Amino acid sequence: MAELTAFAYQPGVSILHRLDVRMKLALVAAASLISLRLDFPGIGLMALPLLSVAAGCRRSLRIQAGELRWIGLLLAFVFSARVLSTDGTTVLSVLALDITGEGLREGALVCLRLSLVFLVGTLLMATTRSTEIKTGVQWFLQPLPLVPAERVGTMLGLLVRFIPVIFEEVSRASDAQRARAVENRRNPLRRAVKLGIPIMSRVFERSDRLALAMEARCYSERRTQPSLRAALKDWVLFGLSCGWLVVLLAV
Questions:
Q1: What secondary structure does DSSP assign to the chain, as a single string?
Q2: Looking at 99-103, 104-108, 159-163, which range is the least confident one?
Q3: Which backbone phi and psi does 224 adopt, to 5 degrees?
Q4: Bridge partners, 99 (sequence order)
Q5: CA-CA distance, 24 to 30, in Å (whole number)?
Q6: What span, in angstroms and rounded, lies between the C-alpha atoms of 69 and 76?
Q7: pTM above 0.90, yes or no
Q8: What is residue 26's predicted lDDT score, i.e. its pLDDT?
Q9: Cα-flanking dihedrals φ and ψ of residue 87, to 5°?
Q10: In degrees, to the nearest 5, what angle opens at C-alpha 125 toward C-alphas 119 and 127?
């Protein structure tokens, strides 16, 4: 079993836990898209309520140091790529590479935007069951013609369930390589290959076992879904959140 982390559902009684899943999916999609258009003031204004909500769900956000390390490496790569690929006024030269002020600004802006998207997605996964996400996705896709809503919902539900599994395999592979002193190799590409291949192999093996288990149990995409009901408090919170997002677009 994968360890319970912020990327797996954690039971709770917070306002996000009780919010209708359809509204959560709509708000997550809107907030993620809007965050990609915000500048520094807008990012700060969006981060304040998100951090407040995260504080209220802190018992569900059990992010481990190893998970933050990989996310930090991703942000560092994005920041470096943005800094080195943006033209402008050179403020520093390192090994014949020019670092511009515009690149530093764009790199920081992109990393902050990605951090907001990561926070929004983490809040969704930590406060919503995978079956509810599957049901909500199917509800949105059901009116669309030629779209297999049940299949798409099942795929997304399995994807959400597999995220903590992937982190578990990364942790196991990292511990095994650390025990064999693989991290002492100077070639970073070789270290990445030695880490990536076992992880992918184990993830695919577990995926095959899951597919065989589902097939052996005659799994069907047409299953009894959780009932979706939106109360008045859900609509009030949804309306306030949409109004706040509209204000952010005007910043």
A1: -PPP-TTS-----SHHHHS-HHHHHHHHHHHHHHHTT--HHHHHHHHHHHHHHHHHTTTT----HHHHHHHHHHHHHHHHHHHHH--S-EEEEETTEEEEHHHHHHHHHHHHHHHHHHHHHHHHHHHS-HHHHHHHHHHHHTTSTT--HHHHHHHHHHHHHHHHHHHHHHHHHHHHHHHTTGGG-S-HHHHHHHHHHHHHHHHHHHHHHHHHHHHHTT--S--PPPP----HHHHHHHHHHHHHHHHHHH-
A2: 159-163
A3: -70, 120
A4: 92
A5: 10
A6: 10
A7: no
A8: 92
A9: -80, 155
A10: 100
Residue spans per domain, the chain: 15-250
pLDDT digits 0-9 by tens, 5-30? 556 777 777 888 888 889 999 999 99
Structure tokens, 59: 């018992």
97-100 and 90-94 beta bridge pairing:
antiparallel
Residue 190's contacts (CB-CB under 8 Å, 6 or more residues apart) are none
Count of positions (residues) in the chain: 251
pLDDT in tens, 212-227: 887 787 777 676 667 7
